[in-house]
Design brief:
This protein has 450 residues and is mainly α. It has two domains: 205 residues, no CATH class; 227 residues, no CATH class. The protein is built from 15 helices and six strands. The strands form three sheets. The protein has a two-stranded antiparallel ribbon. Strands 3-6 form a two-stranded antiparallel ribbon. Strand 1 and strand 2 form a beta hairpin. It is globular, with a radius of gyration of 24 Å. It starts with a helix and ends with a strand.
Length: 450
């Protein structure tokens, strides 16, 4: 790993502060007055810190590939901005920012010009800022740096808990009062009887930082009709209506199974060899494909009526980025590379290649046009009580499966690195039940790395 946990903790804090400074400065220039854009009380924005460490972890090896570094930064920022925007909207039922009036935007959460800025920021971060900060951190005595980190993160924790307490208090008051409309105006009305305490500070903070909060725009006629149909199904007690939690659970298992079978058939046709493509030790399930199905469904659900070309391009870019992130993650966590495309033309570090990215695009179209509608209808026909019980059985089974797979892979890596000398009962269990022969049969393309 290129960065230690100590360095990542410092990078998170530093980029949180830098992000707040840049965001506040930009807002001041635009509004012609000081505007604190941070959600927390202190001068920091955790979303920028999260972006900074995401760049460091997933994009560090692209420092000599500026174009792909720029592209990777834009894609990671897209995922972070989208996730943050959706979570905040689910909590407050309003958008904290809205780019829907700008060109080249996605759901009002992401705008192309901002993605480009994030892309340039990733290049500057990886190639210039991070090396400088690593040198400065080496100059700081370790004991002093650790004490400062404890102080900083204690303050951050208090700030977060205080803000969260205030926000929940505000949300509760609004719900009880039945107030609708502009969030800023509604919160200001509550300030008269909420006092000068924590909630009052939150009201002022939100009102100053996000004056542009607006209610959701009316959906298009077709989308509105589909929404009403989903509401009618919910009233009738239909299981897993719309893009719900239980629907995504079922789609994860179906996507994991279908992805494993598809890859197995593809390898058999192209190489003439029947080999396992499973991600886990029990059952033909590919976690990468399962999570991919959930990710594509969650993001593209509200855009499922768009053209095939739109879904194909989106699936190609998102699928390639997703596979790259999965490759880096599994190598960091398990010390194992599960696929290597170095011998395929137009590859990036052996982690992804252009041909398979196109496969992701094709799979996205097939999924949203053919598979998802049919699978969704079948899932909704399951009796509600039965569906809930089966979903939790599958969740518990997959959690157990993933844990066992992780431990088996860890022991497999230890044996290959000569670190399995200490004989424990757990180690003996995995040596007996998951020897090298079985692990290599389950993961035929796995390669142990340093």
């Amino acid at each position: 790993m290129e960065y230690t946990v100590y360095q990542l903790l410092w990078l998170f804090f530093i980029y949180s502060v830098l992000g707040w400074v840049v965001g506040t400065t930009a807002a001041a220039i635009q509004k012609k007055k000081f505007v604190d854009v941070g959600f927390l009380y202190g001068p920091w924005c955790p979303a920028y810190g999260l972006g900074g460490i995401a760049f460091a972890i997933f994009l560090g090896e692209l420092r000599n590939e500026w174009f792909f570094l720029f592209l990777g930064g834009a894609i990671l920022s897209f995922l972070i901005s989208l996730a943050t925007g959706v979570v905040l909207e689910r909590i407050f039922h309003r958008k904290w920012w809205d780019y829907s009036r700008k060109r080249f935007q996605f759901g009002g959460y992401v705008n192309l010009s901002y993605l480009a800025m994030w892309g340039f920021a990733s290049v500057i971060s990886i190639c210039f800022l991070n090396p400088i900060m690593k040198k400065l951190l080496r100059m700081l005595p370790g004991w002093a740096g650790e004490i400062l980190l404890i102080i900083v993160y204690t303050i951050l924790a208090i700030d977060f808990l205080g803000t969260l307490t205030g926000v929940l208090a505000v949300k509760s008051k609004i719900k009880k009062a039945g107030i609708i409309g502009n969030v800023s105006e509604s919160l200001q009305k509550q300030a008269d009887w909420m006092g000068e305490g924590l909630a009052g500070w939150v009201l002022k903070h939100i009102g100053n930082g996000y004056p542009q909060l607006e209610a959701k725009k009316l959906l298009e006629a077709r989308q509105e009709q589909e929404r009403r149909q989903e509401e009618e199904k919910e009233k009738k007690g239909v299981f897993a209506v719309g893009c719900s939690f239980y629907k995504l659970v079922c789609l994860f298992f179906l996507g994991a199974f279908l992805g494993d079978i598809t890859e197995t058939i593809f390898c058999l046709v192209t190489s003439g060899e029947l080999m396992s493509r499973s991600s886990v030790v029990y059952g033909p399930f590919s976690i990468v494909w399962g999570l991919g199905a959930v990710l594509l469904t969650t993001i593209l659900y509200q855009y499922r009526n768009h053209s095939d070309s739109y879904i194909f391009v989106f699936g190609t870019v998102l699928g390639g980025a997703y596979e790259y992130i999965c490759s880096v993650f599994t190598e960091l966590v398990f010390g194992t590379v599960f696929w290597d495309y170095s011998e395929i033309p137009f590859n990036l570090g052996g982690r992804i290649n252009l041909l398979y990215c196109f496969f992701w695009g094709i799979a996205s179209v097939v999924w949203m046009r053919l598979l998802y509608p049919r699978l969704s209808d079948w899932i909704e026909k399951i009796p509600k009580k039965t569906g809930i019980i089966l979903s939790w059985i599958m969740i518990v089974f997959m959690i157990f499966n993933i844990i066992m797979s992780g431990l088996a892979l860890n022991r497999y890596t230890q044996r290959h690195n000569g670190e399995a000398g200490v004989h424990t009962e757990i180690g003996a269990f995995f040596d007996e039940h998951f020897p090298d022969e079985r692990m290599e049969r389950i993961y035929p393309n796995a390669m142990v790395v340093e």
